[in-house]
Structure to design on (702 residues):
């Protein structure tokens, strides 16, 4: 039985600089690259993952060395010579490939460890591959397993629970203040990119209304349109403060634009509903003394960074736990694979035994005249019983859990002992 | 026979409540979801045992067991427990159970440390008004105790958010909004029962002593408590007071409740003094 190898080959944000990743010969989307991949000889099953941080090809093949080279060429095309791309490429086989795939799925290999986006991307990539009938029993099992590993990591560790980017940290804080962001109103002061990003997250978490206040109304209008919101001039800011709940400030103003004494009288009209100020401008836009007001919470960029740092430390601790889970699951998968290697041999062994019994019966039965149908049946039964009793122990030996990693040796041994080599073309 | 059952029941209340509290605390530290469910079931068990204990004491003494120090505190713990369990049925507030179970265990410890002897009830207390007036008042105290726990949780969480120093409590306590709602709910329910308690008290006073209000120290302090909570609710409705101030007031309010319950008895005396 020729051995089947799982190969994982790819580039990611850690090993490969962006300039190199940009030169990859892949067209965007999955349809074309998968079709192109299908033209490579020697691939039994294949799958492709392509995100902005990584491109990975996972295949199962009989001719590992040849395929490996072809895949690298496929990935880089003519843009780079093998010498150039060698150091940017990683290539894993079998156990290591499985381990790497699980690490990716569990988001332990991500730029932001623990972010959950990667699992969705993985599932999408798998959907394409399986729709195009590129995957078979091994990769199907392997990819499904990787999803469940990711799920297990997520439920058994707190790796995904803390916010490690500024926007996420702001959301987390807002949730601690307001409970839920459902129906909360957002005011953006300044229409910069950071404000846009923060607003995107807030709206994504249920915030209802976005009001944009900006020096130039045009830019405010643009941004407001994106969120189906309203645009106002900077001079209307105070008026708006009566109605909104979350304020993201990011103007380029040289000094403070909102003072404690501006906000204090507003609180009564708001019936003391909490206000959450997020000041991501440098230099700061908002008076630090705002935080002293009751029911007013002010976080500037340093505060948010502190939250992020704190969470990162926590996350690193959880990542260790998560890697242990990945190790465990990778081992389990290898066991399953080893079991798979044994299956054809078991079948061949059974087949051979049955064939011998059948042959001997055909030879013997015609010579035994005067047998009743019932007696005939007994003889047949005896023949097959002898076969299965004889094969029972060798099969048990093959299936035994004790030395899983030696299953290849056991398979070889049994095959030569029982002379299975010749008639197995599988 | 009944006496023995009574004795065993009280001890099992103690044990079960301790276990519930311990599991809640372990859950508070470890945040393992499974533990929370276990803790809640044990706490429910404790609530049922407390009910049985009070019932057995009722049969033992022949009157509503709320007149001695021991009985009043057990009744108090019972009402906190059931107020929490009923509250939990409607809302779920993260880790609230830990705080409540600690309070209940403290109360039970106090109950265990004072005399558990049965007392002869003075004729004036032998009335249907006893369970009505005292029962309603104690239910009010139960909800006000929950508001007290919520207030403490609010102040802890607010401090984390204001100082931006995220420590132990930050991830373990719920959002400020949900704590404020909890306070609001418990204060409203508690205040309604407190008002009813005082009204039934005056009616009973009229019947027993011929006067609605006798300025007995306990009555005075009940009135002070009532005024404090009334002020709090008034401020919430008119000026929209919320959050920190309401949390502080529910803590202060609960302190006057405790003083009304114990301080008055020991320091000031009066008709509400438990029979000696």
């Amino acid at each position: 039985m020729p051995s089947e190898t799982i190969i994982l080959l790819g580039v990611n944000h850690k090993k490969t600089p962006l300039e190199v990743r940009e030169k990859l010969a892949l067209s965007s989307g999955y349809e074309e690259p998968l079709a192109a991949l299908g033209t490579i000889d020697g691939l039994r099953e294949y799958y492709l993952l392509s995100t902005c941080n990584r491109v990975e090809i996972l295949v199962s093949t009989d001719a590992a060395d040849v395929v490996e080279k072809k895949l690298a060429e496929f990935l880089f095309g003519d843009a780079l010579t093998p010498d150039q791309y060698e150091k940017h490429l990683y290539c894993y086989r079998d156990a290591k490939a499985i381990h790497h795939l699980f690490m990716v799925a569990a988001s332990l290999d991500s730029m932001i460890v623990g972010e959950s986006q990667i699992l969705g991307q993985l599932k999408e990539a798998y959907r394409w591959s399986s729709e195009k009938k590129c995957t078979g029993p091994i990769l199907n099992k392997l990819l499904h397993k990787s999803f469940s590993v990711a799920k297990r990591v997520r439920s058994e560790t707190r790796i995904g629970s803390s916010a490690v980017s500024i926007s996420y940290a702001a959301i987390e804080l807002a949730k601690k203040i307001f409970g839920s962001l459902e129906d909360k109103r957002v005011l953006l002061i300044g229409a910069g990119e950071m404000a846009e990003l923060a607003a995107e997250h807030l709206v994504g978490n249920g915030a209802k209304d976005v009001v944009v206040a900006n020096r130039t109304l045009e830019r405010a209008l643009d941004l407001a349109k994106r969120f189906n919101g309203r645009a106002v001039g900077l001079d209307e800011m105070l008026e708006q403060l009566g109605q909104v709940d979350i304020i993201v400030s990011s103007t380029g103003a040289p000094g403070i634009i909102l003072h404690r004494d501006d906000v204090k009288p507003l609180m009564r009209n708001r019936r003391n509903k909490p206000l959450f100020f997020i000041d991501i401008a440098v230099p700061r836009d908002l008076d630090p003394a705002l935080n002293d007001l009751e029911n007013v919470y002010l976080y500037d960029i340093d505060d948010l960074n502190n939250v992020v740092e704190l969470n990162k430390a926590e996350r690193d601790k959880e990542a260790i736990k998560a890697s242990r889970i990945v190790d465990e699951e990778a081992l389990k998968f290898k066991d399953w694979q080893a079991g798979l290697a044994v299956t054809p041999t078991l079948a061949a062994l059974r087949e051979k035994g049955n064939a011998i019994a059948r042959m001997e019966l055909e030879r013997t039965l015609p010579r035994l005249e005067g047998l009743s149908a019932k007696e005939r049946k007994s003889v047949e039964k005896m023949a097959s019983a002898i076969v299965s009793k004889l094969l029972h122990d060798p099969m048990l030996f093959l299936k035994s859990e004790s030395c899983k990693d030696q299953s290849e040796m056991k398979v070889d041994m049994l095959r030569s002992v029982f002379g299975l080599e010749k008639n197995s073309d599988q | 026979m009944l006496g023995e059952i009574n004795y065993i029941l009280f001890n099992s209340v103690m044990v079960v409540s301790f276990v519930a509290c311990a599991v809640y605390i372990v859950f508070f530290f470890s945040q393992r979801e499974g533990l929370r469910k276990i803790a809640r079931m044990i706490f429910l068990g404790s609530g049922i045992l407390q009910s049985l204990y009070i019932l057995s004491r009722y049969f033992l003494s022949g009157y509503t067991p709320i007149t001695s120090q021991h009985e009043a505190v057990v009744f108090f713990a019972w009402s906190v427990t059931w107020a929490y369990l009923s509250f939990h049925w409607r809302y779920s507030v993260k880790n609230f159970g830990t705080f409540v179970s600690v309070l209940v265990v403290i109360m039970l410890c106090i109950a265990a440390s004072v005399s558990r002897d049965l007392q002869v009830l003075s004729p004036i207390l032998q009335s249907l008004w006893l369970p009505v007036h005292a029962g309603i008042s104690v239910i009010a105290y139960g909800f006000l105790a929950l508001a007290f726990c919520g207030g403490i949780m609010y102040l802890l969480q607010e401090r984390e958010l204001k100082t931006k120093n995220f420590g132990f409590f930050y991830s373990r306590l719920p959002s400020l909004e949900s704590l404020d709602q909890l306070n609001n709910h418990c204060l409203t329910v508690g205040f309604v029962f407190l008002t009813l308690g005082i009204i039934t008290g005056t009616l009973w006073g009229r019947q027993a002593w011929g006067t609605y209000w006798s300025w007995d120290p306990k009555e005075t302090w009940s009135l002070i408590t009532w005024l404090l909570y009334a002020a709090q609710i008034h401020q919430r409705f008119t000026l929209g007071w919320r959050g920190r101030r309401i949390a502080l007031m529910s803590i202060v309010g609960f302190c006057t409740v405790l003083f009304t319950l114990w301080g008055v008895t020991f320091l000031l005396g009066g008709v509400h003094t438990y029979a000696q």
Q: What stands out?
A: Helices of chain B lie at 2-30, 33-61, 69-90, 96-113, 129-163, 176-209, 217-239, 244-268. Chain B has one domain: 2-268. Chain B touches chain A at residues 157, 161-162, 164, 166, 170, 174-178, 239-245 (CB under 8 Å). Chain B has a mean pLDDT of 86.
